[in-house]
Amino acid sequence: MPDWNPEILRRLAPLKLxxxxxxxxxxxxxxxxxxxxxxxxxAGQAEDAAYHTSLGELKDEDFLACNLKRVExxxxxxxxxxxxxxxxxxxxxxxxxxxxxxxxxxxPGFAAVAILTLALxxxxxxxxxxxxxxxxxxPLAYKHSTSLVNIWGKxxxxxxxxxxxxxxxxxxxxxxxxxxxxxxAYALGGNANLTRADAGPVQVSSAGATAxxxxxxxxxxxxxxxxxxxxxxxxxxxxxxLSYALWxxxxxxxxxxxxxxxxxxxxxxxVVGVLPKNFSLGGKQxxxxxxxxxxxxxxxxxxxxxxxxxRLKPGVNSAQASAALSRFADYLRxxxxxxxxxxxxxxxSMFMVPVKEQLVAKLRxxxxxxxxxxxxxxxxxxxxxxxxxxAHASSREKELAIRSAxxxxxxxxxxxxxxxxxxxxxxxxxxxxxxxxxGVGALRALVPANTPRMDEVRLDPLVLAFTFGIxxxxxxxxxxxxxxxxxxxxxxxxxxxxxxxxxxTGGTRRLRAVLVVSELAxxxxxxxxxxxxxxxxxHLLDVSPxxxxxxxxxxxxxxxDKAYPDGVPVQSFFTQLxxxxxxxxxxxxxxxxxxxxxxxxxxSGSVFFEDTSIPNxxxxxxxxxxxxxxxxxxxATPGYFSTMQIPLVRGRIxxxxxxxxxPLVVVVDANFAHRFWPHGDAIGQHVAVDTIPTVDPNAxxxxxxxxxxxxxxxxxxxxxxxxxxxxxxxxxNQPLYGVFVPRDMTLAVRTSLDPASVTNxxxxxxxxxxxxxxxxxxxTMDQLVCTSxxxxxLNLSLLVAFAAxxxxxxxxxxxxxxxxxxxxxxxxxxxxxxxxAQPRDVxxxxxxxxxxxxxxxxxxxxxxxxxxxxxxxxxxFEVEPTDLATFVxxxxxxxxxxxxxxxxxxxxxxxxxxxxxxxxx
Amino acid sequence: xxxxxxxxAVEWKKGSAExxxxxxxxxxxxxxxxISKLIEQRSGGTIRFHVASLYPMLYRLExxxxxxxxxxxxxxxxxxxxxxxxxxxRRVLASQLHGWREFVxxxxxxxxxxxx
Lengths: 921, 116
Fold this sequence. Notes:
The complex is a heterodimer. By secondary structure, chain A is an alpha+beta fold. Chain A is built from 27 helices and 22 strands. In chain A, α17 runs antiparallel to α23 (about 790-825), α23 crosses α24 (about 825-835) and α25 packs antiparallel against α26. The longest helix of chain A is centred in the middle third of the chain and has 37 residues, at about 410-445. The radius of gyration of chain A is 39 Å and the shape is elongated. The termini of chain A are close together. Chain B is of the alpha+beta class. Chain B has helices at about 10-25, 30-40, 50-65, 85-115; strands at about 30, 65-70, 80-85. Chains A and B meet through α2 and α4 of A and α2 and α3 of B.
C-alpha cells in the first residue's frame, strides 16, 4: 500500500496543528486513500494511475489547508513537548496529573473498568483490615492495657485446661503476691430478675466485681462512680452499676438514676453509677453488683467461679510473673494436697494470659486467613488492571512515539504512565473506601452477637492510611506493566508504521501470559480454601447433636433466692411448671434441664466412683480416697429426655418417683458408660457427686452414693464439632447435699405447632405461678444450632464471596488475554484459513492457548494450596487440608470457566475473513 | 467540491452538503469513505466529495455538535473513525429537510406557473 503520509503531512503543515491532532487527521485520510486506491485497483486501473487518482483526493496543497483552517484554528493543542524543558519537579507532577486525567477522560470505559476492579480489591482489603485493626491490633480501651493479665488455674490430669479461681485461691494469691501491683476479681454469667412497680419483670444478665476491677481497668462510669471499698464488704454489698444499654432501655436514660434503688431478685440495690456505652468484659452484662467476698468465710477451695485480673508491676515481665505463679502453684499443691493432689504440675498449675489475648485469640486464625484471602483478591485485580493497561499502552504507542520524537525521554514517558496508574489506583481506593464502609456495616450485622470488639470496628485514621498505602502500592505494582512495555518498545519503529500500531512484542506477550497465570494460581488458592470450608461446614451440619432439634422451643427462667429458698420451693415450682406447660394445646411434651445444650451454659464437677477397679483415673486420698473424674453435670426433670428425644440406650430415665425421699439415682451418657465400664455394665454401678451432710465439721465426709439407672445417648453440648466430656444427669428432685436444687433452669418444649406461637401460652403458665418471673433467652433449638455455627458460617460466607470474586476476575483476565491474542494473531489466523485450516483448527489455536495458560496456572495454584491450606486446619472439621475431592473439583471448575472465557474470542477468530485479515497488517 | 455536467450550482451543493451528510448517517454510523461513496452512488455520480472537501465538513459538523466521531476497532480491521448524528444533529436535520422541501415546493410552484 502506498505511503500517503508525506503528502498528507505536507498539506497539514501550514496549519501548525498539535501533533496528536495532526496524527489523527493523517490516519483518517490515509484510510480513505487506501480504500480509494483499493477501489481503483479492483476496477482495473494500474497501480500508478490508481496512486495518482487517489492522491488527487487531497487536491493541491493550499486547498486542504484552507478548508481545514477555519475548522481547526480553535483546536486544542496538547502540550506534548512541554516536559522537555521542565525544570520544576512539582510543576512536572502537576502537569503529569492534568495530562493523566485528560487521557483517562478520553477512555472512560477503560478507566471505569480499571477503577471498579481496583475498588473491589481495595475495598475488600480495607473492610477486613478494619476488623483486624479493631480486634487484633488496637490496644484495649483500658488503662495501660498491655500490662493487664487474666490468671487461670489448670487441672491437666482431670482434663480441665483452664479453670476459674476459687475464693480461697484468690485470697492466697493476694497474700503471696510477688509480681502484680493490683489484683481484682469478677464473676460473669449470672442472671437476675429486675422488677419495677410500673413495668413487668425483666430478666437481666448480672455480673459481680470487687471494688478494684473498674479502677484497675481505668473505667470511669459516665454517671456516678464505681464501688468503694466499703460497698464491697460481705453483707454490705447491695450496690449496683447499670450498663448503658439497660439504663437507656429500662430506665429511659434517667439522669437521676444514681440516687435511686432498684429491685433485683426481690432485693433492693442502690444504683451508684452507669457504665460507659459498650463496656463489657466479654459477653453481655446488664448489671454489675459488688461481690462482697467474705474472707473469713470463703466458698470452698474447689468452687471455681472467679475470673481474676491483675496488673504486672512495673519492671516485671511476663516470664518473671509466670515463674512467680508457678511458685504459687507449688505452694498450693504442698499446702493443700487434697485439693491440688498428684504432687506435680500436671495435677495443678497456674498460668496467665494477657487480657487482650484472652479476648481475641480464638478469632485470630480466621481473621488472618481472611486477610490473606483479600490480599490475593487484590493481587488478581492488579493483574487484571495491568493487562488492561498493557492493551491501553499498545493503543497509545503512536502518541507516545510522537512525544518521544519531540524530546520526551523514556523516563519521562514512564513517569507519565505511572502517574496515570497512580491516579487510577487512588480513584479505586476512594471508591474502595465507600465499598468498605458498606462492607463493615454488613459485617457488623452478620457477625455473632458475642464476637468481641466488633463494636470498635470503624474506618479510623490507621485504616485510612492503610487504604492510601495499598492504593499507592497497587498503582505502582500494576503501573510497572505498561512502563516495562514502553521501556522495551522501539518507539521509532512505531512512527515508521503510519496509522498502524506495532504488534505486541514477545516480551509483552509473555508478561500478559505471566499475569494471567498468576491470577489463575491465586484464584485456585482461594477456591481451594473456600471449597475446604464448604465441605467442612457441610460435615458440621451433618453432625447429629444427639437429640432432635425440630419443633423444640427453649425458654430460660431463674428463681430468685429470696422468694424461693433452696430445696422444696424450687423443686415444687419446676414440677408444677412442667405439669402446667404440658397442658397447653399443641405441646407434646415438656421438661427442664439446668444447662441446655448449645446454649453457652456449662457446668461440671467431680464424680467419685465406688468401683475402685476402674483403671487410669486419679484419686484424692485426703478427701475421699476414691477414683474421681471431672464430668459434665446436669440436673433434669423426668420429661427432659423424652422431650429432647435423647435416645435411651439401656435401663430407664427419670420418673416422678425419683424424688427426695426415693433412692438416689443418676443417668449417664453412653460415653461415660463406655469409658469407665467398657466391658461391663454401667447399670447398677454407684457414683457420688456430693457427700452426706454432717453436723460435726471434723468428721470425714462420706460419699452420697447414687445408682446409675440409665444410659442415654451422648449430647453435643458445647458445639457440633466438639465431642465434650462425659455427661451425668441428676434428677432435679434429688438435691445436692439434700438441699441445693438448681434454680436457673431451661424449659424444653416439644410442640407440633410453630414454636413461637406457644410462647405466650407458656408465659401465662409461668405468670400463673409467679407474675414477677420473666422468661428470657427464648429460642427454638434450630436457632440455637444456627447460632452455634454462626462463626464458621460467616468465615465460609466471606471466603466463598472472595473466591467467587477471584473466579470472576480471573475469567475476565483470561478472556482479556485471549481476546487480545486473537486480535494480534488475526493476520496469522487469516493465513491459516487461506491455506485451508478448518474451523476446529482455528478454534484449537485459541482454546489451546487459553487451556495451556489455565493448566499452568492451576498447577502452580495447587502447589501453593498444598503448602498454604495447612493454615486452615484449625477452621476445618473432618476435612483434611489436602482433601482430594476439593482439589479435583476446583480444577474442573476453573478449567470449565476458562474454556467459557476462551469461547468468545475463539468464535471471533472463526469469523475472521481471510481477505480482510491478509489486508490487515 | 467537483462539478460535472448539468449539475446544480456550487452554492446549492454547499448548502445541501450538510443535509446530505446528516441524512446519510442518521440511520447508522458511517466512516468518511463510506459517506463519500454513498453520496456519489445515490446521486448517480452528480455529487462527489473528495478528501479535501469531505473531512473539513465532517470536522466542522463535529465542532458544532451535530455529529460525534469515534474511533472503532473491529476484529480483523484497522481502526476507523465512525460518525454518528447527535440529538442536536437530528433536530437540525429535521429542520433542514423541512426547509429544503418547502424550498423545492416553492420552486416547483413558480416554474409550473411560468410553464403552464
